[in-house]
Design a protein that fits this description.
heterodimer; B: alpha/beta; 11 strands
Chain lengths: 86, 222
Amino acid sequence: MKSFVGRVRVMPRAGLVDPQGHAVEHALGALGFAGVSRVRVGRTFEISVEADSEQQVRERLREMCEKLVANPVTEDFTIDTVETAP
Amino acid sequence: MKVAVVRFPGSNCDADALNAAQLAGHDAYFVWHRSADLGGADAVILPGGFSYGDHLRCGAIARFSPVMKSVAAHAKAGGSLIGICNGFQILCEAHLLPGQLVRNEKLSFVCKLVTLRVENDQTPFTNRYSVGKELRMPVAHGDGRYVADEATLDMLERDGRVVFRYVGGNPNGAMRDIAGIRNAEGNVVGMMPHPERVVEPILGSTDGLAMFALAGIPAGVS
């Protein structure tokens, strides 16, 4: 068994209204940042897992996302990276 | 009737729900979320509040409380079950109802009286109302915007599963002005507004009391 850290990104589904993203977008405009055309707000999870291989970690992260970490009704998830823990 | 009011850490409308059920003449009692025993309840109420601090998503963690297995079994056996506000969020996260409640469109917490139209009377909680009846009830939530994909929304409309709709103003941006829905069988209802807060004249209205009458429900299925 090895230690891994997986980074999972959960974003509001494209096409759904993202009120938080809109609020940040407006606030950036108010601060004088020109040219910001769109902001979407999601979140990142760092999940440390003991497993035999990176492949196994990815499979388990996917299952975690499907069952809890993301809500499939409104969110999409991406497994960004899986690294061996230092 | 025996009515179980489930308490999660962070429930805050549990006493109001108990009071409403008692006013309607029921033997109502609390069930702690760690218990899997609903006490032979005829009906179960998941009350409002902020279970588990709304961590991850509203209702997402409460779904894993030991009591929820019993609540799901109660529902599958045809037992009457209502989730109010946070209770509705839990029912969606537990897949006992379709869709999800997400952050209000305008991001702010809304706490005010709204007008609802009864859209379906084929549930144990709305069978004392007639379709089209308008009710005044408070809402108090930050994440009450009902969202589902178009196919699900069309199915809910087609099958008469939209139970309440906001009229004269949608407080949270809910799709199709949906304030409450039911499952296919009709024994499970979820709604964002708070009927338990309008059950006595001193509270300003009694529009919600009939929801707790529970006339003609199957007894003791749990």
